[in-house]
Each structure stands twice: as C-alpha cells, then as structure tokens.
Inverse folding.
C-alpha cells in the first residue's frame, strides 16, 4: 500500500508538471488536449505496471 501510494504521488506530480507546461503554451492547448489525456493515461498505466 505504501509503495503504491508513493508511486501514485510521483505519477500525479508528473501529470501536474505536464499540465503546467501545456497551460503555459495556451495557444497550442486545444491541439495538444488529446496528447495530455494520452500522457495522463500512459503515466497512470506505468504507475500500475511498476506497482
């Protein structure tokens, strides 16, 4: 449980960093919206795989 929680936190931090990065580039935000969703899903999948 502890390891899973820690890796979830790391995944959330990566997601937040990605969101901040894309928000700073708002002119491309709509184009990259699907990319953000894919990155979030990919990050969550990695967190589950390496649980």
């Amino acid at each position: 449980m502890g390891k899973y929680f820690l890796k979830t936190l790391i995944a959330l931090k990566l997601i937040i960093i990605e969101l901040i990065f894309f928000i700073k580039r708002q002119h491309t935000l709509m184009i990259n919206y699907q990319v953000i969703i894919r990155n979030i899903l990919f990050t969550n999948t990695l967190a589950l795989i390496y649980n």
Observations:
- The mean pLDDT is 78.
- Residues 2-49 form one domain.
- The chain has one domain: 2-49.
